[in-house]
Amino acid sequence: MTEPTGPLKGLRVVDLTRVLAGPTCTQMLGDLGAEVIKIERPEAGDDTRGFAPPYVPRTKESAYFVGVNRNKQSVTVDIAKPEGQAIVHRLLETADILVENFKVGALAKYGLGWEQLKEKYPGLIYCSITGFGQTGPYAPRPGYDALIQAMGGVMSLTGEIEGEPQKVGIPVADLFAGLYGTIGVLAALRHKQATGQGQQIDIGMLDTHVAWLANQGMNYLATGENPPRLGNQHPNIVPYQVFPTADGYMVLSIGNDPTFERFCRNFGLEHLLADERYATNAARVGNRALVTETLTAVTKTRPTREWIEKLEALKIGCGPINTLKDVFADPHVVARNMVVEMPHASGETVQVIANPVKLSATPPDYRSAAPVLGQHTEGVLSGLGYSAEEIAAMRRSGIV
């Protein structure tokens, strides 16, 4: 692993997370230069090591695991054993941050809960990511992405008008919780810099899900009515949706009245501008079905590529509906270096999705691909002062 260069260089993170929400947080910290020591169960490791197929080509590593565990060192420790807990405590003596996503109270059984650590390590930033947070009636419950999407309301807003509620196609509840966790850690670091004090960060997946209901949540608070499912249509802007073309589909995003006027004048629809049902965005929202029907008859007359060329020339928002093959081949995505190749412990080179944060002075760095299970156990334990004989004895006992 090469030396970090990011803005968090010099910080040590003890990573007691697994699956997605927690590892998303700790990977972001690692990308920004922190040293991340990932504690995994001996022999089993992070659950996502078994979330396969698919595997990364020519390796035995699951694509899922490799996607959210770069820039981390894997150390196998059985924290259920006192000797394993002692290892974590040695790490905490020089650690700045601990991130965990165990169920509420689970780490207290091992002497590693916030209440047990805060006096011994007063500068420790302790980030807890759970399904429902540390307090409230649901706190003891486990959290799962689809469950949170359902309980958090987004499924009631997603799907076709006459269809069933739908979850988002990627685990957004997990991802947002991890990213909010990162924001909390960065804020806590600023507080520690000013005061020397650590603190606990309490991230509940349901809380973060409610927070990103955004305009739809505000639509409910303003009206008291649950916004209806609209398929691919926008709740507050029309036309801003998927339209059929002569050979497929495209997204047309007309965000204001001057843009709608420009669209109409260039595609033979000038007469609509004198019709009050089309004149303003508010009127178009009120006549959504009519506007959609009128424009569909027009969009179906040209193929997608022609529409994209003409609309882009007019500075009207539009885009194709890309498959992932299209996405990763897109010249803009390529130019933005959104895929990175990294050497892996297997001897192979693996492709991973890059960090999207572009910092001009201290950009994210890519020091090492996701580790194989226990790859760094001996090196880290040696650095903590354990002898080769002690490490070998702990291996025989299943402690590491």
UniProtKB/TrEMBL annotation:
Pfam families assigned: CoA_transf_3 (PF02515)
Coiled coil: none
Keyword Transmembrane helix: no
GO-annotated molecular function: CoA-transferase activity
Keyword annotations: Transferase
Protein name: CoA transferase
